[in-house]
Write a structure and sequence with these properties.
Layout (H helix, E strand, L loop, with lengths): L12 E5 L3 H12 L3 E5 L8 H4 L3 E2 L13 H22 L10 E5 L2 H16 L5 E3 L1 H7 L9 E5 L3 E2 L2 H14 L3 E3 L4 E7 L2 E7 L7 E4 L2 E4 L19 E12 L10 E4 L2 E5 L4 E5 L13 H14 L7 E13 L5 E4 L5 E5 L9 H14 L12 H9 L1
Parallel strand pairs: 1-2, 1-12, 2-8, 4-14, 12-19
Antiparallel strand pairs: 3-7, 4-6, 5-6, 9-10, 10-11, 13-16, 13-17, 14-15, 15-16, 18-19
Helix pairs in contact: 1-6, 1-8, 3-6, 3-8
Bound molecules: flavin-adenine dinucleotide.
The site of flavin-adenine dinucleotide has 44 residues, from α1, α2, β13 and β17.
């Protein structure tokens, strides 16, 4: 494996493709170490998936049987979040809405309760600190939930952050740390000579691209990562957009209908301190289609109303959609590639906000030391190459 510390990472010119939470957090940490970093963002920073997300930090309760491999990385990132939030707030003066009241998952019918008990068995096998609540215990915590519900789970370690504020704070923190943030600067491709990165080709409308030299390029273009040109076939990233529609209702911040993040059978509900109640989200394989559909809104409102009937009275504040960067196995792609100088930080799918602190920490450690931290070894791109060879 190549070692970037030779001839010296301190003199390296680092370019990050993508100004979402992933690219920005890596740039911030590199800038804090006095390294020369430029972030190239096609539009405005933090306005794609990082803006569309619900901001749940759900390392434990969201665990699905196919995603057990993510658990150590997700739990470590969750452990880092409280300090990460404080550090961001101190650096920028922007409070990022970190909340740790815990998260509930509720069953509305007896069938739902059966399914939830099955999920809870999985949690127990993984030794996750999640407890079963009777209907009365759920309602004692959240009295506005449907009074006919049949039970629920409580995960004290899962919480939330306001992802839009996180992105805003990261831009400010990057600037303070001396990073060069270039918005409205789409990257056409990565320039590679003799298996080594030499820079980026920056897109210019109606003109030839312009070359920007770089010794290290961090690929953090989220759902668009596959479209960046110039990579050899073996480094092509198996990342696709997974569309999610979401809406926000407006509660009275002085008398919110909910305090915890709540997962109901067909939606989740995320109450913000400013009174917004986020209702999410659809999961759709529609490419980069930004259509916001009546069906999407109907499904979300129906799911939310069954769990929390009082939403009927609330104003609809906003309706939007975004693209989760989903890899072929829905796990992130992290670490070095076969191309010297090309670092990968993409494919965070539905957990990119949760995984931001650990992604920044491990990718920066890899860049500075030239060695891949143990925790991200399972997420190397070559897991897909190995699968292709054995198929
Ligand atoms: C509806 C929805 C709900 C979600 N809820 C949660 C949640 O509750 N918790 C959680 O942890 N995660 C959640 N996620 C997932 C999370 O939002 C993503 O995993 C995370 O934001 C990915 O960050 P990113 O920086 O990789 O991508 P993005 O934020 O999409 O950033 C990538 C950036 O790259 C830029 N870019 C693209 N192409 C180019 C180019 N050619 N040149 C330069 N720049 C380029 C884009 O403009 C974009 O700004 C949710 C996602 C969605 C869509």
């Amino acid at each position: 494996m190549f070692n970037i510390s030779k001839p010296g990472v301190s003199a390296a010119r680092i370019a990050v493709i993508g100004g979402g939470v992933v690219g920005l957090s890596i740039a911030w940490r590199l800038g804090q170490q006095g390294l020369a970093v430029a972030v190239f963002e096609a539009g405005a920073c933090g306005r794609e998936a990082s803006w569309a997300a619900a901001g749940m930090l759900a390392a434990q309760i969201e665990t699905e049987p196919t995603e057990e491999g993510l658990l150590p990385l997700a739990r470590e990132s969750q452990r880092l979040w409280p300090d990460f939030a404080v550090e961001l707030e101190r650096a920028t003066g922007i409070a990022v809405g970190f909340r740790d009241e815990g998260t509930m998952m509720v069953a509305l019918t007896r069938d739902d309760a059966e399914k939830l008990r099955f999920t809870h068995d999985l949690h127990r096998r993984m030794d996750l600190p999640i407890s079963w609540l009777s209907a009365a215990e759920v309602l004692a915590r959240e009295p506005h939930l449907n009074p006919r519900l049949s039970g629920g789970l409580f995960s004290p370690l899962d919480g939330q952050v306001d992802n839009r504020l996180v992105a805003q704070a990261l831009v400010a923190a990057c600037r303070k740390a001396g990073c060069d943030i270039r918005e409205n600067s789409p990257v056409d491709g990565v320039e590679i000579v003799d298996g080594r990165v030499t820079g980026l080709q920056l897109h210019r409308p109606d003109q030839d691209p312009i070359f920007h030299p770089a010794d290290i390029v961090v690929m953090a273009a989220g759902a668009w990562s596959r479209g960046i040109k110039g990579l050899p076939a073996r480094s092509r990233l198996p990342v696709r957009p997974v569309k999610g529609q979401m809406l926000a209702l407006r509660m009275d911040p002085a008398a919110p209908l909910l305090r915890h993040v709540v997962w109901a059978p067909n939606c989740y509900l995320v109450p913000r301190r400013d009174g917004r109640l986020i209702v999410g989200a659809t999961t759709e394989e529609r490419g980069f289609d930004r259509t916001q559909t009546a069906g999407g809104m109907l499904a979300l409102l129906d799911g939310a109303w069954r769990a929390l009937p009082g939403i009927e009275e609330l104003a609809v504040d906003e309706f939007w959609c975004g693209f989760r960067p989903g890899s072929r196995d829905d796990l992130p792609i992290l670490g070095m590639s076969d191309t010297e100088g090309l670092i990968l930080a993409t494919g965070h799918h539905r957990n990119g906000i949760l995984l931001t602190p650990i992604t920044a920490q491990t990718i920066v450690a890899a860049i500075v030391s030239g060695r891949i931290p143990e925790l991200i070894r399972p997420f190397a791109l070559d897991r897909f190459q190995a699968a292709a060879v054995s198929a």
